[in-house]
Specification:
The complex is a heterodimer of chains A (135) and B (47). Chain A has two helices and six strands, in the order αββββββα. Chain A has 135 residues and is α+β, with helices and mostly antiparallel strands. In chain A, the strands form two sheets. In chain A, strands 1-2-3-4 form a four-stranded antiparallel β-sheet, with helices on one face. In chain A, strands 5-6 form a two-stranded antiparallel sheet. Chain B has a two-stranded antiparallel sheet with strand order 1-2. Classes of the chains: A alpha+beta (135), B alpha+beta (47).
Chain lengths: 135, 47
């Protein structure tokens, strides 16, 4: 990721989600990711990381839950990754990654939505909306 | 295993309805991420 884009990524994230105290980290291989904890009612918390892939921004970030989730949790991909994109559907108005417009800040809103859907599923055994491709 | 507190059935139904509605409407989150309902229509990259 070039430095100009990185500055904009940081600005977008802090402008929208600074209350969640997102932290930009780098792993041993130099791969950048954000770490933060989502909050929901009932004291529920979900720590996540948003990982910039090597092909960013052409490739969308991965959203990874940093705590183990119940067996059978829907819309969860291997590696505890949240399922959120529809790369093959061009007519949907959400869940499509747009490299020229979107930043990792978008992923926080996506993850919040997923977290609330997860809590509804946990409470009712039904995923509230068929918003993602089930695996 | 993460520890999660289930929602009440009533609150779960409210959230389900908000999500269904958001499918001119979007989900509205506070700055700390709490769901506040829906709002008329979440940070974009501007090179």
């Amino acid at each position: 990721m070039d430095s100009k884009r990185l500055v904009l990524e940081h600005a977008a994230m802090m402008e929208r989600w600074s209350a969640l105290e997102p932290r930009l980290r780098s792993d041993a291989s130099g791969q950048l990711h954000w770490e933060l904890t989502l909050h929901a009612e009932g004291g529920n918390r979900l720590p996540i990381k948003i990982v910039y892939p090597s092909g960013y921004p052409s490739d969308a970030p991965d959203i990874v839950a940093l705590t183990s989730l119940p067996s059978g949790t829907p819309h969860l991909l291997p590696g505890n990754r949240i399922c959120w994109r529809h790369p093959s559907e061009s007519k949907r108005n959400r869940n499509i990654w747009c490299p020229s417009k979107d930043t990792a800040a978008l992923c926080v809103g996506v993850a919040q939505r997923w977290f609330y859907a997860f809590l509804v599923w946990l409470s009712t055994s039904k995923w509230p909306v068929p918003d993602a491709v089930s695996n | 295993m993460g520890s999660f507190t289930p929602l009440t059935k009533e609150r779960a139904e409210e959230i389900r309805r908000a999500m269904e509605q958001s499918r001119s409407e979007g989900l509205a989150f506070s700055e700390t991420g709490e769901l506040e309902g829906t709002a008329p229509v979440i940070t974009h990259y501007q090179p």
